[in-house]
Amino acid sequence: MNYASRLLFVLLLSMPLSHAFAQTDSTATEEDYGEYDNLSFAGDGNKNYCSNKIEGLSPSKLISLGYDFQGPQTLSADSFGAVSPYERAFGLAHGLRFAANVPVISRNSIIVQMSANYLETRYQEKANQTGTNGILAQALTNNGLRSMGLGTTIFKPLDGKKFLLFQGSADLNGDWQWGDFMPLKYLKYSAAAVYGLRTSDRKQWGIGLSRTYRAGELNYIPILLFNSTNPSNTWGTEILFPARAHVRRTFSPRSMAFFGYELEGQSYRLWFNPSTRGEDLEIRRSEIRLRFVYERSLKDFIWMSLQVGYRINYSYNVDRLPDGKDFYRGFFGTQPMAMENKLTNPLYINLSINLVSP
Amino acid sequence: MRRFLLATFVFLASFLLTAKSLNDPADRLLGVWEPSNGRARVKIEKIGTKYYGKIVWLKEPTDPETGKPKLDKNNPDESLRNAPLKGYRMLKDFTYKGDDEWTEGTIYDPNNGSTYSCIIKMKDANTLEIRGYIGIATFGRTDVWKRLQVPAKP
Q1: Cβ contact (<8 Å) for A7 and B3?
Q2: Tens digit of pLDDT for each residue in A41-59?
Q3: A105-120 burial string, b = 16+ CB within 10 Å, else e?
Q4: 2.40.50.140, 3.30.70.3450, 2.40.160.40, 3.20.20.370: which CATH number matches A61-356?
Q5: Per-residue pLDDT tens for B70-111?
Q6: Contacts of B132 in chain A (CB under 8 A)
Q7: How many domains does the structure of chain B reveal?
């Protein structure tokens, strides 16, 4: 190889290398970060929108698949028609729970999510029970209760501090069966609106109003939102009163525990049995789930959630809807119930696998 | 004469390659950018043929708990939890796909120690849309980043 060939060889070899090293890996040398203190926007600056989250908040669930088990419980049913009051004991009540929250638009200026959910409760009457039985116990034993719905949540930041939150859903609740759905005219509509402030990276609060069935029957209830995290990211609160309120203990961003309650409820139409369908009866089911929850990441964005708690019955009464239409009784209305029932309070456990959000 | 011709050829080839690099549309991504929350600044660099972004400025550089510079304490890899957050590469492995998009990269969120798949789209010379997502782009969130520059001297 002559000199010229060697020169060419060396230069050709060094070209791609020098080309690569022209973009230096600046972490390889000490960098003066002070030079980045006084920079300005090259064009228009960012519009300042507050985030829907605060630091330390538990991750929201995009997809959740779980199963709920309630311990044995006894129904004390009121008289109805010719049927005298009676008691019925149930063994384990259990059912599948599924929820999906898909972000349709997810930008810093607006977040729009569509949601779908399904939950069921299957009841099993204990064997060898004698005495009266009525339509309520029969509906629970033969059909169970199901709720399926679609909804949307919109988070609209107004600026770096203020935000609006809207939530709406339509749910089909009753003793319907797969393959034999209730007509959509029985949909129940819920909605909520909150005006809030994100006062710091660790605190947000808001007030609003909801149209809700969480207390079993239609109600209009004020809402209080309060999420906070302490400076060391170890403790916090996640409150959307009266729907739920929890104290959060964070072990790491991938492992946390909660203690608090959730108010869960809907109005379930007794529809499946044709002989009583025309009665327009609905179970005003509402329960307070006093609970301990542990959530942790199993792998990356797959999280498990384990709830253990005490399910306190708030309402299991039955209303007859005049002309089949829902009505507002509120906390002070005097419209009589068709049945005033009681349900004993069991322990419950709920296990779910979740895909959590960025 | 032959040596001179060879040297000239090598010089021209090198020059052309460098010129191509300077005009490479993919390199428009290089520079310092600020996410919408204004809490950090990220310098995007090119290493080899890929693009990386490291944190070069923090609005709150000190950990209120320790009074020392913030560390990457939420990193799932315990051995990295003592690494300073300033200087940490939060954008990794982006390649230019064309059509103002850089793909196949990841973005790291120091707040929770999670790494997401990420697509960068340049809306204009000074605006990026950064979408972090899980699995498919539907399960994600877009943030707007703005380009920073050294202010002009009066």
Answers
A1: yes
A2: 998 888 889 999 999 999 9
A3: ebbbeebbbebebbbb
A4: 2.40.160.40
A5: 999 888 888 999 999 999 999 999 999 999 999 999 999 998
A6: 358
A7: 1
